[in-house]
């Protein structure tokens, strides 16, 4: 058996460095034993130097799983299963939370290792905001693609699609919206819509420096609409992905007493909520995928100042872009997961009706975030939109004959 292989055994209640398993009825003399929880498994595996780790799934993360069921979704363990966890050694930026080491998806780890801080000077603070982003390996002489993320998320949301786009030669940028992700925004007084917009504009002006195809998923779609209407010179085309645009602000959350707002934000960071949210977002996913998606999705919540920034955004009222939608003059592509239960596809059709220059592409058997669930299909659609009407000649430009899928 290969080193660092995990055996998943029903009924096991402990981790053991000797490779033997306790079924709860016997008490062998293990050199190291610990209760089975998701955190302990990861810590144990990270420090384990032997060949095999054995543990069982029946008591795995008891807060989230009871009798192999997680919030209505069944998980069945009918046989011993070997899961290889050999991962390449990567060096992560020191500004990321230590829990980045717990990520298991190779694409998530690789993208996290590429995140960097660049200074962005704004009117929001005397000092530059150290802004987290992933910059392209190559640039073209034409437009760039800029990937935003959704509410309370980070650029790691693009871990599956970013490398597919980049491998096709698309000049692809990803940045964290102010107040979320991994930027260091110490000293910012408000994380309202105007602050997020200014920060995004200054990043574009100082680093991208060319018209963008701006891609906004979920609440990032509202951010993209707001930016495209305010700064049309920066946006060549717009892509809305299962976007929010017809929900006015954050609703009653804007009027919550601050103490209750902080309590709500603390719950937003919780493992059970994040795991449950993933069961709603993805149509078909293994438990391992959902678990690592939860780790990726809450990593930015461990950054200093995250709670303050999120509460500030909530108290500001959030995005209200319904009236701005007909003002969007850029050609707009709408990409929608056909089985989205978070923002139903009727909203996609409403966008088509209200936007002056819109086209719509559905992705079958897909939920709310197709760039994670169906990255090849999503990236193929986006690449085609990127190529339309462009002169992409140049030493490092995208070659039209390249295939993305």
TrEMBL record:
Record's GO cellular component terms: chloroplast envelope
A Pfam family reported for this protein in Swiss-Prot or TrEMBL: Hydrolase_4
Annotated SUPFAM superfamilies: alpha/beta-Hydrolases (SSF53474)
Signal sequence extent: none
Residue ranges occupied by any Serine aminopeptidase S33 domain in the UniProt entry: 144-374
A single MF term (Gene Ontology): hydrolase activity
Listed InterPro entries: AB_hydrolase_1, AB_hydrolase_fold, Epox_hydrolase-like, Hydrolase_4
Protein name from the UniProt record: Serine aminopeptidase S33 domain-containing protein
Organism encoding this protein: Physcomitrium patens (Spreading-leaved earth moss)
Gene behind this protein: LOC112296126
């Amino acid at each position: 058996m290969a080193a660092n292989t995990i055996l998943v055994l029903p009924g096991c209640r402990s981790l053991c460095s000797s490779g033997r398993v306790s079924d709860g009825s016997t008490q062998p003399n293990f050199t190291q034993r610990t209760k089975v929880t998701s955190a302990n498994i990861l810590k144990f595996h990270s420090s384990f130097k032997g060949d095999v780790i054995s543990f069982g799934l029946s008591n795995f993360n008891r807060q989230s799983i009871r009798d192999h069921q997680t919030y209505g979704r069944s998980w069945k363990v009918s046989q011993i299963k070997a899961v290889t966890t050999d991962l390449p050694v990567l060096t992560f930026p020191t500004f990321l939370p230590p829990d980045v080491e717990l990520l298991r998806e190779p694409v998530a780890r690789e993208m996290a290792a590429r995140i960097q801080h660049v200074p962005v000077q704004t009117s929001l603070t005397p000092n530059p905001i150290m802004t987290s982003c992933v910059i392209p390996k190559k640039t073209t002489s034409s437009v760039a693609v800029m990937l935003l993320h959704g509410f309370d998320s980070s650029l790691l949301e693009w871990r599956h699609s970013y490398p597919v786009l980049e491998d096709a030669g698309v000049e692809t940028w990803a940045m964290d919206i102010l107040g979320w992700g991994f930027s260091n925004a110490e000293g910012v007084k408000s994380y309202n819509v105007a602050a997020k917009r200014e920060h995004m504009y200054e990043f574009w002006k100082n680093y991208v420096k060319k018209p963008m195809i701006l891609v906004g998923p979920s609440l990032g779609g509202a951010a993209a609409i707001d930016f495209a209407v305010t700064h049309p010179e920066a946006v060549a085309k717009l892509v809305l992905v299962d976007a929010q645009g017809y929900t006015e602000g954050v609703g009653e959350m804007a009027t919550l007493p601050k103490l209750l707002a902080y309590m709500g934000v603390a719950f937003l960071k919780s493992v059970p909520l994040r795991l449950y949210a993933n069961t709603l977002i993805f149509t078909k996913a293994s438990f391992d995928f959902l678990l690592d998606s939860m780790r990726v999705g809450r990593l930015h919540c461990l950054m200093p100042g995250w709670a303050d920034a999120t509460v500030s955004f909530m108290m500001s009222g959030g995005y209200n872009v319904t009236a701005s939608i007909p003002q969007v003059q850029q050609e707009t592509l709408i990409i929608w997961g056909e089985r989205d239960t978070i923002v139903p596809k009727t909203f996609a059709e409403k966008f088509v009706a209200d936007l002056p220059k819109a086209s719509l592409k559905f992705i079958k058997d897909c939920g709310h975030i197709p760039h994670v669930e169906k990255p090849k299909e999503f990236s193929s659609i986006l690449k085609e939109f990127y190529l339309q009407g462009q002169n992409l000649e140049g030493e490092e430009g995208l070659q039209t004959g390249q295939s993305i899928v």
